[in-house]
Amino acid sequence: MTPQSPFPIDHIGIAVADLSEAIAHYTSVFGQGPDHLETLETQGVSVAFFTTPTASIELLAPFGDLSPMAKFLAHKGPGLHHIAYLVPQEQYLLEIKRLTDLGLQPLTPAPTLGAKGKQVQFFHPKSHLGVLMELCSYA
Amino acid sequence: MTPQSPFPIDHIGIAVADLSEAIAHYTSVFGQGPDHLETLETQGVSVAFFTTPTASIELLAPFGDLSPMAKFLAHKGPGLHHIAYLVPQEQYLLEIKRLTDLGLQPLTPAPTLGAKGKQVQFFHPKSHLGVLMELCSYA
Question: What does the pLDDT average to over A18-34?
Fold first, then answer.
């Protein structure tokens, strides 16, 4: 089976320093609040999702002292962080392999647990023209 | 009339140094080529759009010596550049005013001509938590 790329953009990740302040800002901009809040201790982030009729916005703030998000904010400041594509479960590992074979570098040896109970696999921005890419899938 | 926010994410803009190289890369990643190519002399960019089932990807490369995109690349390198929301024409100026009233800073006094013949209005990242936002609309 060949993965049916291109897959839909599921969400755009945005790094923020203060999640409460960012939620207030986006609630004003969108005219409605977030539809999902979660803290991912293993990823070192607290997140808030805002729905639009197409892709969603995921705000990510550092959680804990060793958060990679804290490092990102210290180096680059708040702003655009990653793009996530949603892949059907039956094509998920095939698509990860296909992209890896193309030269994209997975950040972890296997998918990890992300927000909303999804599997997530990140690929290094240096292997994707400066863009951190996520492939996510509902288990 | 109150604008019916949130509006759909139309596309995500990505700054690239070499458009041909980037088109080849994304064509491999997506398994299909771009559906639209255009040079916007007034904006100083050449662009390529790739469709996904939700939002699109817009690759932007500098065009001309005074391109703001060349300045962006020199300062930040290639990567995520902006998020564009699509607003129906009858709500477009109202939504620009609503966001301006919220404190978002328009980059130009009025919308300008963007890709695909659309009107585009950018808002300064400093007024939107580090994210360059575009509102676009079909005239």
Answer: 97
Domain ranges of chain B: 9-138
What tokens does B5 get?
């926010």
Gap between the Cα atoms of A81 and A59, Å rounded:
9
Nearest CA in chain A to B7: A52
How many CA atoms, within 13 angstroms, populate the side-chain half-sphere of residue A65? 0
pLDDT band at A66, cuts 50/70/90?
confident
User: What are the percentages of helix, strand and coil residues in chain B, rounded to 5?
Assistant: 30, 35, 35
* Burial of A95 (C-beta count, 10 Å sphere; 0-12/13-18/19+): buried
Query: Is B51's Cβ below 8 Å from some Cβ in A?
Result: yes
| Confidence check: pLDDT of B27 > 70 | yes
Burial code of A118-127, b = ≥16 C-beta within 10 A, e = fewer? bbbbbbebeb
Say if CB B113 and CB A67 are below 8 A apart.
no
Q: Give the closest-approach CA distance of B65 to chain A in angstroms.
A: 22
- Answer yes or no: do B5 and A32 touch at CB < 8 A: yes
Superfamily, domain B9-138: 2,3-Dihydroxybiphenyl 1,2-Dioxygenase, domain 1 (3.10.180.10)
Taking CB atoms and an 8 Å cutoff, what residues of chain A touch B54? 8-10, 54-55
Q: Following DSSP, what letter does each residue of B50-89 receive, concatenated?
A: E--SSSEEEEEEE-STT-HHHHHHHHH-SEEEEEEEE--H
